[in-house]
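RECORD TYPE: inverse folding
INPUT: structure tokens
STRUCTURE:
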């Protein structure tokens, strides 16, 4: 099979119209050119869109804030192994002046020749303009929103997480949205009006639902409720079975529907013992600070999908949360679905939803 022209058979293919199969998907110069129903195939695999991860702080022992040179090639392989074909290296809270170097290194990594490697859509800044739920972020480094600093950000900053209770949150959302940046509300104890005002100003995502925010109470609801009940905003979920209980994952998907749920790994370089400038250790199923506070995850995107399916979520809905919905939020209308004319970013899953094969723009990885 070559990258220019190829065909891929599968028992089922997840298309915009739902599952089709048995089917043969035709690829030509990195684009899907046809989806042909056939009478039979020899494989029981299913084809789904390549996964899009909006929040990757690091993987294994490579932290994106310090990655350089061959580190990026290793990250490429670790991402492909879990079906991720597009991603956002994520930088956590640090003093403003320290963002320049890692932001520049991410820009350099984006200039590498393509050809079977995952696409870096751009960087995600998770902080330092957060709110009252710092989580693992250093409280002393969370600062008021600086609109001039945000205005001066380079164009490859494509996601910014901020706290909706920040006095300038709505203005920041308007400014960033006008620049084409996805604004996400996170690490926040915002009130209902503060949340809704920030969404009305342009925010379209909530960062890791239930984690780093006020939650669900029938008389005193918090940000998790504001997110699930505001139809104008999506919510990302860390489906590792630690950050969110599987029954609560099912609750979230029920509330968000098929087009507002987004899976993220929030993966960190847990073997390195650091995420950005924050020290952590792997304990009780997840990276944590010394006091037990969760500090990212070790989950892979394919494992997150399996957790969702085990929790009772349809595979198609879990896959959409890992591909279609995040691609749409980033404005990447050339990917995120298996459809004629779209980029051939495709993942083949086994009958147990393990990764069998990945194609990036038609290149088998």
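DESIGNED SEQUENCE:
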């Amino acid at each position: 099979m070559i990258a220019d022209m190829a065909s891929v058979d599968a028992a089922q293919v997840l298309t915009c119209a739902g599952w089709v199969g048995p089917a043969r998907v035709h690829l030509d110069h990195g684009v899907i050119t046809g989806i042909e129903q056939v009478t039979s195939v020899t494989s029981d695999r299913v084809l789904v869109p390549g996964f899009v991860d909006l929040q990757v702080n690091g993987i294994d022992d490579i932290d994106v804030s310090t990655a350089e040179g061959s580190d990026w090639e290793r990250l490429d392989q670790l991402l492909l192994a879990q079906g991720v074909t597009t991603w956002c290296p994520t930088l956590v809270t640090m003093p403003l002046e320290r963002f320049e170097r890692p932001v520049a290194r991410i820009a350099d990594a984006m200039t590498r020749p393509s050809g079977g490697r995952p696409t870096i859509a751009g960087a995600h800044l998770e902080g330092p303009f957060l709110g009252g739920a710092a989580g693992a972020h250093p409280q002393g480094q969370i600062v008021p929103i600086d609109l001039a600093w945000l205005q001066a950000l380079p164009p490859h900053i494509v996601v910014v997480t901020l706290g909706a209770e920040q006095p300038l949150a709505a203005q920041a959302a308007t400014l960033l949205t006008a620049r084409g940046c996805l604004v996400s509300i996170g690490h926040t104890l915002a009130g209902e009006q503060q949340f809704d005002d920030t969404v009305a100003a342009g925010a379209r995502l909530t960062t890791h639902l239930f984690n780093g925010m006020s939650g669900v109470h029938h008389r005193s609801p918090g940000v998790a409720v504001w997110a699930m009940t505001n139809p104008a905003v999506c919510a990302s979920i860390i489906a590792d079975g630690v950050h969110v209980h599987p029954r609560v994952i099912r609750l979230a998907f029920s509330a968000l529907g098929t087009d507002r749920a987004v899976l993220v790994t929030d993966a960190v370089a847990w073997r390195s013992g650091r995420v950005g400038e924050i020290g952590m250790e792997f304990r009780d199923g997840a990276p944590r600070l010394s006091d037990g506070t969760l500090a990212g995850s070790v989950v892979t995107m394919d494992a997150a999908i399996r957790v969702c399916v085990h929790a009772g979520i349809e595979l198609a809905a879990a896959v959409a949360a890992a591909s279609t919905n995040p691609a749409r939020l980033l404005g990447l209308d050339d990917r995120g679905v298996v459809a004629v004319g779209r980029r051939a970013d495709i993942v083949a899953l086994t009958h147990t939803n393990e990764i069998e094969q990945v194609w990036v723009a038609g290149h088998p990885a």
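NOTES: The chain has two domains: 5-47+340-364, 51-329.
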